[in-house]
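Q: How would the structure tokens look for this protein?
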Amino acid sequence: MITTDMLTNYIQRIIPDAKVSVTDRTGTMDHFSIRVVSDLFKGKNLLDRHRLIYHALDEPMKDGRIHALEIKAETTDGT
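A: Here is the predicted structure in token form.
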């Protein structure tokens, strides 16, 4: 099992300025909806933003602690 704090820490290691909100979608702590807000996303398309997040969460994705992930990746100005 992975906690929301652990998910946030994984993301902030790769995206230090990230503001992260995590929702457990099923109550099983392995299906998550995450929203990441960072200026690092400026000038990046949606695919590149998601790649950064998947890179940050590579370990818990590979070891099965994350089974499903819904991602919203935005800049601080809402784009």
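The mean pLDDT is 96.

The first strand starts at residue 19 and ends at 24.

Upvote if useful.
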